[in-house]
Design a protein that fits this description.
With about 300 residues, this protein is of the alpha/beta class. It has helices at about 5-15, 20-25, 30-45, 60-90, 100-120, 130-140, 185-190, 200-210, 225-235, 280-295, and strands at about 50-55, 55-60, 95-100, 125-130, 145-150, 160-175, 180-185, 190-195, 215-225, 240, 255-260, 265-270, 300-305.
Length: about 300
């Protein structure tokens, strides 16, 4: 039996609309071409499939038997095309991923290790910026995904935020702190290293000290994340940092901040109204899995963020 998908597509369409002429129009074929396809199909099967009359074309018993089989064949063929298309996307795709400096050296680095092993052919472009700049790049269509930290959703319908993790801010030092927790007043009395004013984290901690009526004892000001952590490791002072930076930092001692506790939410930013690429969705799933693994770690004060 020499049956092809074009013959089955024509057969199913005629059975649906009941007329050769209308089916040919729907399939963008000339009616003689469609008639030849059906005649060849009937010859190969050895049975007529339609009864032709002035009222149109109706299925014969043989046609009735063939119809569900033909529909399954066409559905299976469509599924195969989709699956092969996805495989091609994973073989030739590229992902443009943005992240803040802190998340680049933690969540992104951990994600990429497993992602590259699973999808070695996907190209990855990394953009490292602050959250506000990353959100602008997402809305401009320059990034497929971005990992950002924000206190409130952006006022822009062109970007959607998917919360990943809620993490506490912790106090880090080179040597032992008074205990597992430390109050803001205690931190204010210690020599402190603070971030550049461009960091959202700096604004949050400054606001907390101001609300509490405290003046922190700043010894180094204006550093970036890597420099702050290095200065702390060298014993220059303490710093208030996101919990996620404790990953692979065995020389740091930490205490959870209390009175008040401070936290931030890590989210995936995506452009709205744009269907994700196969490669982009694979990256998103990999990030979600890594975030869940971080949340399960007993040494990190963080949890999976609420999506309400």
């Amino acid at each position: 039996m020499n049956v092809n998908l074009e013959q089955l597509r024509g057969f199913v369409e005629i059975a649906r609309v009941g007329r050769f002429t209308l089916a040919a129009e729907r399939l963008h074929l000339a009616q003689p071409s469609l008639s030849r396809q059906i005649a060849a199909l009937e010859h190969d099967l050895g049975a007529p499939l339609f009864t032709r009359g002035t009222g149109g074309a109706t299925l014969t018993p043989a046609g009735e038997s063939l119809l569900p089989w033909a529909r399954r064949m066409l559905s299976d063929a469509a599924s195969a095309r989709r699956e092969l298309g996805e495989l091609a996307g994973l073989e030739r795709g590229r992902v443009r991923l943005g992240a803040t400096p802190t998340l680049c050296i933690t969540l992104v680095a951990e994600t990429l290790r497993g992602f590259h092993a699973a999808h070695p052919a996907i190209g990855i472009g990394i953009v490292e910026q602050g959250s506000r700049r990353l959100l602008a790049d997402v809305t401009a269509g320059e990034l497929d995904l971005a990992l950002v930290t924000t206190s409130a959703p952006p006022d822009d319908s062109r970007v959607a935020l998917e919360p990943l993790l809620t993490e506490e801010l912790v106090v880090v030092a080179a040597r032992g702190l008074p205990g597992d927790t430390i109050g803001l007043a205690e931190v204010a009395a210690l020599p402190q290293i603070v971030f550049s004013e461009s960091y959202d984290l700096r604004a949050a901690t400054d606001a907390a000290f101001e609300t509490a009526g405290l003046a922190p004892r700043v010894v180094v000001e204006g550093a970036e994340m890597d420099a702050v952590l290095r200065f702390v490791e060298r014993g220059l002072g303490v710093a208030i940092v996101p919990a996620i930076v404790l990953v692979d930092r065995p020389d740091l001692r930490s205490a959870r901040l209390t009175e008040p506790s401070l936290s931030r939410t890590i989210s995936i930013a995506r452009p709205t109204g744009v269907a994700p690429t196969v490669a982009g969705e694979a990256m998103r799933q990999a990030i979600l899995a890594t975030a869940r693994a971080f949340a399960d770690r007993p040494d990190l004060p963080m949890r999976v963020a609420s999506r309400e």
